[in-house]
Design a protein that fits this description.
Length: about 350
């Protein structure tokens, strides 16, 4: 099933026909169970359910694909990076990235363009913001291309296409294909970039610790910390932090999990604002932190996420037979048993 509007329409049709769930079997080796109804999703969302997250490896062993104890430890270490207040420091970055995009659109209109596909522009804008917020890295990616940004865009595209071809789900087939080879190449570029950023930042932080005085310490504590600083400095109860490899995996996950999802949400928010005629007089206007809860986009954004969810489904892999309501059992097979859960 494709990750397109037609693909989502097909899911809608399946929901109309099967109401709660349906199964695909590829011989005895591959079972795909699609679940739509909350009663069927409940047994799978239970913490002790024998499942694990199933993703194609784009970002290494990060929080997104971890399970059980490993997930709990990483989640505890990374929670400060997810704190809502962190966003307060980034409002200026968001406004400046949006301004670059808005200026580009004004230029295109002045040149006579009457319509454009906005998703790619918004996606570059979210990538630009994420790079500035996570690494203090100004990629200028909205105006010119960079090897790293092209690699991220290519990986996103290849990961989506891989899902659509069932034969490509097996690593030993995928890595032999042209797409698989391109994937590995782009992955190397991304890993090289993140490794460099993490190493430079670690060196910078340790040099800073060695030279700073007491008053500098207080100043540094108040200074805006990038995502990469937060994860470099975080420690668990035993005083142990994340390894460089773990930090790189988390940083890559932020880039992949963060930019396309947010771009999709922004595009649908803009669409809903326009449809509901709420844009009047706000064109090109900057926003302040306080605006976030009062500006109508807050509600429209939530409505957009419900109606046009950027992540319409998640996948779980099962390690033993799974009993669903109505005493139906999905048997674990020797190959893959995947559950695709739609929202
Ligand atoms: C509208 C925007 C977003 C949507 C709709 C979204 C959606 C999701 C969903 C559905 C999951 C769960 C996946 C699963 O359990 O299989 C998830 C996990 C995650 N997302 Fe997002 N996301 C968004 C933005 C972001 C951003 C901006 C970042 C980081 C900069 C991010 C980082 C993550 C991470 C690290 C996880 C793993 C969390 C964990 O397992 O504890 N996401 N996201």
């Amino acid at each position: 099933m494709q990750s397109t509007e037609e693909g989502l329409q097909q899911v809608d049709d399946l929901v109309q026909t099967y109401k709660h769930s349906c199964c695909w079997f590829l011989g005895p080796f591959y079972h795909l169970v699609r679940l739509f109804h909350p009663d069927y999703v409940k047994p799978l969302s239970n913490d002790s359910a024998p499942n694990y997250k199933s993703f194609f490896s784009v970002s290494g062993h990060s929080l997104l694909i971890s399970n059980g104890e490993v997930w709990s430890r990483k989640r505890r270490l990374l929670t400060p990076a997810f704190h809502f207040d962190i966003l307060k420091n980034y409002i200026a970055v968001f406004n400046s990235s949006s301004k670059i995009m808005h200026d580009k659109w004004c230029r295109l209109v002045a040149e006579g363009k009457t319509n454009l596909e906005m998703f790619d522009h918004v996606s570059l804008m979210t990538l630009d913001s994420l790079l500035k917020c996570a690494f203090s890295y100004d990629s200028n990616c909205q105006e010119s291309s960079s090897e790293y940004v092209s690699a991220i865009v290519e990986l996103n595209d290849l990961a989506t296409r891989r899902q659509e071809n069932i034969l490509h789900h097996w690593d030993w087939i995928y890595w032999k294909t042209q797409q698989g080879k391109r994937f590995k190449q782009a992955l190397n570029t991304v890993h090289r970039f993140t490794r460099d950023v993490v190493q430079k930042r670690r060196t910078f932080l340790s040099q800073q610790r060695e030279t700073e005085t007491q008053s500098d310490v207080a100043l540094t504590a108040r200074r805006r910390k990038d995502f990469v600083d937060i994860i470099l400095l975080t420690k668990d109860e035993d005083g142990k932090g994340l390894t460089d490899e773990e930090i790189q995996a988390e940083a890559n996950t932020f880039m992949f999990a963060g930019h396309d999802t947010t771009a999709s949400a922004i595009c649908w928010t803009l669409y809903n604002l326009e449809v509901m005629d709420l844009m009047e007089g706000r064109d090109g206007q900057e926003i302040e932190w306080e605006d976030l809860s009062t500006f109508p986009s807050h509600h429209v954004h939530q409505r957009g996420l419900r109606l046009h969810s950027p992540v319409p489904g998640v996948t779980r892999k099962y390690t033993q037979d799974m009993v669903l309501p109505g005493n139906r059992t999905v048997q674990q097979v020797r190959g893959e048993t995947l559950f695709k859960i739609y929202k």
